[in-house]
């Protein structure tokens, strides 16, 4: 699911599938680099800054990766706020 536009990520299920596709090295975690490349593929401006900010806010265990259900939920909340997917910010 690469090269998606923001309108193609309109449901929570589509976002979950997109997030699974971000893990390029199949280690079960999303790195800042993987996230930055994914944000660029959706046409997001300031993808590097947004990736850094997302890792900072969603990385609850402070291992510099997005991994685990609670961190994925936080990432989805941030994606909704940036209108990558339709939905509410669940903070």
Descriptive notes:
This protein has helices at residues 12-22, 32-41, 47-58, 69-81. By secondary structure, it is mainly alpha-helical. It has a single domain, classed as Recoverin, domain 1 (Orthogonal Bundle), CATH 1.10.238.10. The longest helix is centred in the last third of the chain and has 13 residues, at 69-81. The radius of gyration is 12 Å and the shape is globular.
The total of helices stands at 4
| Residues in β-strands, percent | under 5%
Identify the CATH homologous superfamily.
EF-hand
Taking all Cα atoms into account, the compactness measure Rg is 12 Å
Domain EF-hand: 10-45
Protein name: EF-hand domain-containing protein
Pfam family, one: EF-hand_6
Organism: Dendrobium thyrsiflorum (Pinecone-like raceme dendrobium)
Summarize the helices and strands and which ones pair or pack.
Elements lengths: L11 H11 L9 H10 L5 H12 L10 H13 L10
InterPro entries: EF-hand-dom_pair, EF_Hand_1_Ca_BS, EF_hand_dom
Keywords: Calcium
Pfam family, one: EF-hand_6
């Amino acid at each position: 699911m690469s090269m998606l536009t923001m309108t193609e990520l309109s449901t929570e299920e589509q976002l979950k599938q997109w997030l699974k596709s971000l893990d390029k090295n199949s280690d079960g975690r999303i790195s800042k680099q993987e996230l930055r490349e994914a944000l660029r593929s959706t046409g997001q401006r300031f993808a590097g800054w947004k990736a850094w900010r997302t890792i900072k806010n969603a990385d609850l265990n402070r291992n510099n990766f997005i991994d685990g259900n609670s961190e994925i939920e936080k990432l989805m909340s941030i994606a909704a706020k940036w209108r990558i997917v339709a939905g509410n910010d669940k903070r």
